[in-house]
Each structure stands twice: as structure tokens, then as C-alpha cells.
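Ticket #4471: structure export looks truncated?
Reporter: QA, pipeline team
Priority: medium

Steps to reproduce: submit the single chain below to the structure queue and open the exported record.
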Amino acid sequence: VGHLGAVPLAATGLGAALYATLLMTCQGVLTAVAPLTAHAVGADDRRSAGGIAGGGLILAALLAMPVIAALAGLPFLLAQMGYAPELVAAIAEFLRIICWGAPAFLGIAVLRFLLVALFRARVVMVVVLVGVPLNAVLNWLLIFGHLGLPAFGIRGSAAATAIVQWLMLGCFAFYLMFRTGQVPVSIGRRVLREIPRILRLGLPIGALRALEIGLFVTTGVFMGVLGADALGAHQLVFNVVGVCFMVPLGLSQAATVRVAFQLGRASPGAARRAAFVALALGALFMLAMTAMLLATPRLLIGLYLDLADPANNSLVALALRLLFVAALFQVFDGVQVIAVGALRGYRDTAAPMLIAAVGYWAIGFAGGVLFAFPLGYGAIGLWSGLAAGLAVVAVSLTLRLQVKARAHIRTAEPVPLAPGTLPA
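Actual output as written to the record:
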């Protein structure tokens, strides 16, 4: 989309961010499926695991409806904030189509959490490895109108995303129906009792996810006030760091499942090891990403924009400065999400939510707005606030994880596992 110009890039970037914020918040609620099913699998209660997954699918369908309604109303709110009419129209056009992928996105989340709890992460990886290039091909076809198709522009990008999400949901459902009979997933009235369990654990997770993603998206909304170049640079860099973030996010989900599984096996020492091995792996990976962002900023920006086009000069210059700030908080960003995942395995969700509220908003957002507007640092000020907030949250959550892990070890003796009892 970046090849279509600054306004389509800004509109698609902000539209996708708004879409992702609502869905990732709802996915946060559904994330409770992962530790609940992993604990049940660890305790060898497969029927309960299937009931939890069924309750999660019902909840996913219910959550998708208000998401679609909210996306329809967001362009009106942006217009009231003073966004340029052409930008509002483009965002509305994008959201009107991509919103129909929401039910599939949330259904995928539930089935993915179940598969990971069953230690079938390879299936998830294969489906995603097929979905990513398919999404790229569909974008190429539908945005630019290749192979005789009309050029739909940003509408084509939205349609490609929604189509791929439904295809991926079908793949996961097919695998669970025909390739594994380990967990009887059911969607009947008896599984409705699992929904309150999911909500009790999941609502604080969803709130924490909203606080984290909402920080970046709200920053993007304020970027729009600074102009299309500032918003475009923000969305470009946000996308780059978002790709880097996927690896620690995956490690976070692995930490959730491994910690919950080991606690289900009554082995708190192994749970603690799983948590801190994941933290170490995430920190090392994000150190490598820091080096990459510092060493190849123009190369990364060139993946999105034509660097030789003079019309992009101001956007490129601003994106280079934001990438430098982003490099400074990569390790903190990776550590905080993995610590949250490990704490989720301990079913500790309320305290991380409070830590996030203070770190992200009282420090990160408030500080960013202060730097950006009263002190006049603009886009760089907003991102400096993000960096400060992530650092505070990462340190606080790591300390919380250490305390929680030690408490579990003190109150329960580890039970040694017999050889060969761990899943493949």
C-alpha cells in the first residue's frame, strides 16, 4: 500500500491498527483458553480441555459482533477529531471490508491456543507459513489489479486479509476434526459453564492487551494530528517493530503453556525454569533486532517506500528517527510480553494489568504527550514516551514473575516426571 502514496499508507496503517487493537483486546480475553487447557492437559483431563475450547469458540463468536459494530463507527470519531476528510474516507473504506475477517480472527485464536496446549505448535507454524505468502499474493493481485483483476487499492488489501483469515480458520478446524482425536471439542449447552471461567481469567488479560496495544494506536491517532507524514512514518515503523515483536509474542505463548502444564503436573521448579528460559531467549532475540534496526534503517524503510521519490523525503527522514528510538526499546518490549505470558501460566493476570496501566499510560502516554506537544518534540516525543513506559513495565513484570515463581516453589514440592511422560 505504501506504493500508492502517503494518504493510502496512513489510512491503511491506522485502519489496520484500529482493527488489530479491538481484535487483540478480544483475543486477550480468549488467551485464557491457553493456560486453562494446558493445565487440564497436564492433569490428563482431555474432556475438560475440549469443553474449554468449545466455550472459547462460542465466546469468540459473541465478541466478534461488537467489534464489527465499533469499526463501523470509528471513522466518525476520527472526523470529529479533525482528521482530513480524504483520510477519514480512506480509513472508512478500509474498515468497511476488513471487519468481516473479525469472526475468523477470533476463532483462529481459540483453535491455535488449543493446538499449542496440545503441543501441536508445528501445525500452527505450517498454516501461518502458508497464510503469509498467500496474503502477499492476494494483496499484489487485489491492490494493483494484476492478472486481469481490477485494481481495488486499499480495499483490495482489506479483502486479502479477511479472505486469508477465513482460510486459516478452515485449516485449523479441518486438522482438529480429522487429524487428532485427542480432545473432544464440543459446542453445546454444557460447555456454556466454561465461559465464566474463561472470562474470570481472560478479562484482565484483555484489559492488559488493550492497555498495551491501545498505547501504540492512541499514539498513532495523535500522530494523525501532526499530519499524514507523521502518521505514515509511525505506522511504517510500528509495522517493522511489530514483525520483530512476533518472536517474543510466540515465546510468551509458549511460556504460558509450559508454565501451566508444569503446574498441572505439580512441578513448580520446572515451571520456573520454563519461564526464565523463555525470558532469556526473548531478550537475546530482541538484542539482535536492536542491532538490525540500527544497522539497516534505510533498507527496512525501502521495503515500504520508494526512497528515490522526492515526495517521500520528509516521511523517510522522520521514519529514520523513529526507527532509532524503536531500537532502544526492543529488549524491553520483548521481556515485558514474555513475563506477562509466564505470569498468565501462574493465573496471575490482575497485577500485570495494574502494572501496565501505570507504566503504559501514566508514564508512557502522558510522558509522550508532554514531550510531543508542550515541549515541542513532535513525533519523536511521542515515541520517547513509549520507550519509557515499556522499560518501566518490563522491569516491574520481571520482578513480579520472580516473586510469583519463588512463592510456588516454597508452597509445593516438585514432582519428578517419569521418563517419556512429556509430550513430543
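Status: closed, not a bug. The export was complete when the record was re-opened. Leaving a note from the reviewer for reference: Confidence is low (pLDDT under 50) at residues 413-424.
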